[in-house]
Write a structure and sequence with these properties.
This protein is α+β, with helices and mostly antiparallel strands. The protein is built from 28 helices and 48 strands. The strands form twelve sheets. Strands 7, 12, 15, 16, 17, 18, 19 and 22 form an eight-stranded mixed sheet that branches. A five-stranded mixed sheet has the order 24-23-27-25-26. Strands 29-28-32-30-31 form a five-stranded mixed sheet. α2 packs across α8 and α4 (128-134) packs across α15 (449-472). The longest helix has 24 residues, at 449-472. The protein is globular and about 120 Å long.
């Protein structure tokens, strides 16, 4: 045993027995990690030595002490590593990094890597990158050209596992899979990944010289057979396998103990006799046996133990931790001719339960006595017991205080056990006569020299990036912004829209004056005429503004803190505005003086931020509703803002924008030397505090008295007229004209931009059929095909047809008469009231009855007949405006800084509030279904609130259309989540209907159909619901069918097929399944009575694939996200 051994989490117990009264015995229990350094563990306070007498009971015969000890070891011995542990040096191997929840991938990759022949096959595949390297192109590294190919990424991982000294990064491989961050943090099944990975590798190897190599390594063959016992007739079908999925619990429910026992069950014969005779071609019904026999086993045999099992009592997946033994040598001769012996090579272990867990691998690289444990980036030697026996599973006895119980209770007690949640999940065996060839370590240089050169080149590129990253910790990137870049900005302040004039890197400890020196050469402006301002975050006001940088400041102190919105922790950047004295023109570098005769420029070296401020100045043209940036203006803090108008700076900067016709020419008197009182009537100035908040400032007050600071933003404009404020009136009539909000100043412009919103409105017909979980009951099963789809899947010009939504295709094939949903984009204002919103929608869709007040619009977040049946948005009085409705809408990732809004509307004959109806009536939506369970039509009826279901059926009979082919008598029922919720008796009061309290009556509706089964007195009216094969969830609408006692499942299934009108090609994959909490899930055979299980909780379903799989998982959790390599 290695001296660095450790047994972790050992729970142990020591009992000092009292000879006279065992109930006084002293019991001590603890948990400890036992190692060579921590081997001694115990207590010093069991009993005082003075009390050790025979009279006290602590001493027994011959003055003996009785001590009992027991312990529970959770796992076999492990390996205690320190910070200086080197995997390569200690074991010769290295591990793989875990990038979230990728341990399952790491265990599988290590298992594949140590099959040397598989590694050689991967190395030998030629890629396009290697062709570039061979031609001297350099390749440039896989990260420079988007996602690498799967082959390249796998070659890189394997080559680094063979040659590197530290754990290998798998991000490149995951990127080649098409995975994102969510995939990295979602744990999947290792065996599932193995199948998908091998399939993708084979697919990419087609047509190459390595085509078929993976098959030769992993593919075995089996034969399905049916052999008649009394006539000479045999039916066989061969199929291949890449792994064997073996039960650890038999189909009959008992535990299997070994691989051999599971293989015998896998190949056991099933007798077809009695009522289950086999229909042999040309011989009629015959006694026969059917089963599976193995023909060949591959050199590398992957065995997957089916530890994850669907428990019908819990209706959930569970993990089976029962004991299942794995032999080191497996004789497969009894299962296939000439199969021979197989040697255990690796064991991939799963520790945990269904919802969470961890994978790691034990591998025997040379098939000798040396085992190695691969646990992500940790690689340690281990004992054979830890690799094999410790992972059989089963239960361990736990420590317990049996002295609390009487002898009789102890004799009848069940010993406490703890399941071993760590157990073998995937096992790899190597055929003994092929082991030397399969495990031989390939020399990558001999197998593929060009691959080695490419991988080495990418290692050098990675090292260069590492050095650059190290350098970035001592240097800072600086984005220089010049005044002309500011002048190109339109609209309100957006610090992310700067056009960087130049990017450079400097040491973080360099001074600002050195940055000025660099800018001096670039701009060809003397350093005395330049000043620097760094983009900063003002936490108090939550503003991002430019702030002055002193010449003596080190650059380091201006780096934004990590909490600032402008901070980038991975690649910090300083955005620096270089301001030149106002004698220079605001043009791209190099700058030039406005006048060649200018002798002196402003000296900015003595800038004192306490006395001088720099303002970013803008101008608003209300005619064009445009804001332009004039530039940077510096001034004394005590100067009034109007000084920049009086000295001509504003007029001078406006000229270019007037020439470009971006703004209207200002009035000439605005720049005349007028009295101060008249200037107040010609100018307004606002501070842009934020996009939402603008404060008007005084023209003649000192700038510091107006609480302005360096970097603040002011906006000039012509004075705004005095116009009354527009306030939407509560209680306005339906169809009222939506108010128009004038834009007279920048404050109005900000309000307009904040409240203007593009709304997508989809108008639905109230007679539109239900569409729950993406399924429309239109009688079409299997893949939906649009009626206009070309037979070969292409249009006349050869282009693929326009993609249509599955739901739209399904709706177009419905037998019900209605108009298809119509969508329109509209410009709205969040300040509108509901009446303005509905009036605008009615006008856009030309709903005259709404505008005249005869009908009303109901608004929904999703289709009224789809989703989960949420209530209308305009039933809640609190949602009086469009902004209130937007707040109630589900979160959608915002674009252009504003949460988009999608609304669904439907025209209804009454308002979406109960008080709008006549007293004593209740509206109910009736959806009519024909004998094929197709929705053929719907109507809204008004029933007396004190009436019964029979009154509802009478109203239904009055609105039935002849083309619906629904005969009387009728029955009423309610369906929810694909199951029959209620079957209503005629005498039942309407107020007891479960849908009566729901606001969305289009979704919470009553199903009306012909009561065609009321004559079958002896038959049972049976609910047969649809169940998705993948998710095991009910969907659609169930079928009600009269089933005779003892009727065969085959007959019942055939009648379901006929009623539903399912094509034979589709129906052949459907199964009739009986489910029950106790009996579990049973696939009924054709000759088996459907009611052979008389339990009360038994249900019958048709199990098949959901016709719209893209939405069939809408009720699933994120953990059920399917694994795929894209």
């Amino acid at each position: 045993l290695d001296p660095r051994w450790i047994f972790q989490g050992v729970k142990y117990q020591v009992i000092l027995i009292n000879w006279l009264d065992y109930r006084k015995s002293v019991i001590k229990t603890d948990t400890w990690n036992f190692s060579k350094e921590g081997v001694d563990r115990g207590w010093h306070d069991m009993v005082r030595t003075d009390d050790l007498t025979q009279e006290s009971g602590w001493l027994g015969p011959d003055n003996t002490i009785l001590i009992r000890a027991c312990c529970c070891v959770r796992q076999a011995d492990a390996f205690l590593t320190s910070s200086d542990y080197n995997c390569r040096k200690e074991t010769g191997y290295i591990g793989l990094m875990n990038h979230g929840a990728t341990c399952y991938m790491n265990g599988l990759l290590q298992s594949l890597f140590h099959a040397g022949e598989f590694r050689r096959v991967v190395y030998a595949i030629e890629t396009e990158k290697e062709d570039e390297v061979d031609k001297g192109g350099g390749g440039g590294g896989s990260n420079d050209e988007g996602s690498p190919s799967l082959i390249e990424a796998l070659q890189n991982v394997f080559y680094r596992l063979q040659t590197a000294e530290t754990a290998v990064n798998c991000k490149e491989l995951m990127k080649s899979f098409g995975w994102d961050t969510a995939d990295a943090f979602t744990q999947h099944d290792a065996q599932e990944l193995n199948r998908i990975l091998c399939d993708r590798l084979e697919e990419q190897m087609k047509g190459t010289r390595m085509d078929g190599s993976i098959k030769r390594l992993f593919e075995g063959e089996m034969e399905n057979y049916i052999e008649c016992l009394d006539v000479n007739y045999t039916s066989t079908r061969r199929e291949t396998f890449y792994d064997l999925q073996l039960n650890i619990k038999s189909e009959k429910g008992h535990d299997l103990r070994t691989i051999e026992e599971s293989l015998r069950e896998f190949t056991a014969d099933e007798m077809l006799d009695g009522e289950n005779l086999y229909e042999a071609e040309g011989h009629g019904k015959q006694r026969a046996k059917k089963g599976i026999r193995f023909l060949t086993f591959p050199p590398v045999l992957n065995i997957h133990l089916k530890r994850f099992h669907f428990d019908m009592e819990r209706m959930d997946m569970v993990k089976l931790n029962s004991r299942f033994e794995i032999p080191r040598r497996l004789d497969l001769g009894p299962f296939a001719p000439g199969a021979g012996n197989y040697l255990l090579h690796s064991v991939v272990v799963h520790s945990g339960d269904v919802s969470s867990g961890h994978y790691y691998a034990y591998i025997r690289p040379e098939l000798d006595d040396r085992w190695v444990k691969f646990d992500d980036d940790s690689v340690t030697p281990c004992s054979e017991f830890a690799a094999v026996e410790d992972n059989f599973g089963g239960n361990d006895l736990n420590v317990w205080n049996y002295l609390e119980k009487s002898p009789a209770e102890i004799r009848n007690a069940t010993l406490p056990v703890r399941p071993r949640i760590h157990n073998a999940y995937m096992i790899v065996y190597i055929r003994e006569d092929s082991a030397a060839d399969v495990l031989r370590t390939p020399d990558p240089m001999q197998v593929n020299r060009r691959m080695v050169e490419r991988c080495n080149q990418e290692v050098r590129i990675a090292e260069q990036r590492r050095r650059e990253k190290l350098e970035s910790q001592t240097k800072i990137k600086i984005n220089l912004v010049f005044e002309h870049s500011l002048c190109s900005m339109l609209g309100f302040w957006d610090y992310t829209a700067f056009q960087n004039g130049h990017t450079m890197k400097m040491d973080r400890d360099q001074r600002v004056k050195e940055l000025i020196t660099a800018a001096e050469q670039m701009m060809q402006v003397p350093a005395v005429s330049l000043a620097c301002f760094c983009l900063q975050y003002r936490a108090t006001n939550r503003q991002v503004r430019f702030g002055f940088m002193k010449l003596t400041d080190p650059l380091r102190i201006h780096i934004p803190t990590s909490s600032a919105p402008i901070a980038d922790a991975m690649d910090p950047v300083l955005t620096v505005l270089i301001v030149a004295s106002r004698q220079y023109e605001p043009i791209p570098p190099p700058l030039r003086l406005k006048s060649p005769h200018e002798k002196q420029t402003d000296d900015l070296r003595g800038w004192d931020d306490e006395a001088i401020m720099m303002l970013v100045v803008k101008y608003f043209c209300k005619t064009f509703r445009k804001i332009v940036t004039l530039g940077c203006y510096y001034m004394q803090n005590t100067e009034p803002l109007i000084s920049m108008v009086k000295d001509g700076w504003v007029k001078d900067r406006l000229q270019d924008y007037v020439k470009k016709k971006w703004v209207m020419p200002p009035k000439s008197e605005m720049f005349q030397d007028l009295e101060d009182s008249k200037m107040d009537t010609l100018w307004e100035v606002w501070e842009e505090f934020s996009e939402r908040e603008l404060d008007r400032k005084k023209l003649y007050k000192p700038a510091n008295a107006e609480h302005l600071l360096s970097g603040d933003i002011i906006i000039w404009q012509e004075p705004s007229p005095d116009t009354p404020k527009v306030e939407p009136q509560q209680g306005a009539d339906v169809g009222s004209v939506a108010p128009v909000y004038p834009v007279n100043n920048v404050k109005d412009l900000a309000d307009h931009q904040l409240n203007a919103i593009d709304v997508s409105v989809t108008l639905h017909d109230r007679k539109q059929p239900l569409c729950v979980d993406g399924l429309v009951l239109n009688g079409v099963w299997g893949p939906q095909r649009p009626p206009t789809a070309p037979p070969d899947g292409k249009t006349k010009d050869g282009a693929p047809p326009k993609q249509e939504k599955y739901e739209d295709i399904a709706l177009s094939q419905s037998p019900a008469k209605f108009f298809m949903p119509v969508a329109k984009e509209m410009q709205m204002d969040l300040r509108w009231l509901q009446v303005h919103l509905t009036g605008t929608i009615a006008q856009a869709f030309e709903l005259d009855n709404v505008q005249s007040g005869e009908t009303f619009i109901w608004l929904f977040q999703s289709g009224p007949s789809t989703g989960q049946g949420e209530e209308p948005l305009n039933t809640t009085p609190a949602r009086t405006s469009l902004k209130d409705i937007q707040r109630a809408a589900p979160y959608v990732s915002p674009t252009a800084g504003k949460k988009p809004l999608n609304l669904h509307a439907v025209e209804m004959p009454f308002e979406p509030r109960p008080e709008s109806l006549e007293h004593g009536t209740v509206p109910i939506c009736l959806r009519f279904f024909d004998s094929a369970v197709r929705e053929v039509g719907s109507e809204i009826v008004y029933a007396p609130s004190s009436g019964t279901v029979q009154d509802l059926l009478n109203l239904a009979a009055q609105v039935i259309q002849p083309e619906w082919n629904i005969s009387q008598p009728l029955r009423a029922l309610e369906v929810s989540d694909g199951r029959l919720l209620k079957f209503y008796r005629p005498e039942q009061p309407l107020r007891t209907l479960s849908m009566s309290a729901k606001a969305n009556l289009l979704f919470h509706c009553i199903r009306i159909e012909a009561d065609r089964d009321n004559d079958f007195q002896e038959d049972r009216l049976l609910e047969v619901f649809h169940c998705d094969r993948t998710s095991q969830q009910a969907f659609g609408h169930p079928l009600l069918i009269a089933a005779s006692p003892g009727e065969k499942a085959g007959s019942l299934k055939a009648r379901c097929k006929e009623l539903l009108g399912v094509p034979e090609a589709e129906f052949k994959s459907w199964r009739l399944v009986r489910t029950g909490a106790r009996s579990g899930r049973v696939h009924l055979k054709d000759d088996e009575p459907w009611d052979s299980d008389t339990s009360q909780d038994v249900r019958i379903c048709l199990e098949h694939v959901h016709p719209n799989p893209t939405l069939s998982f809408s009720r699933h959790s994120r953990a059920s996200k399917p694994l795929m390599i894209k």
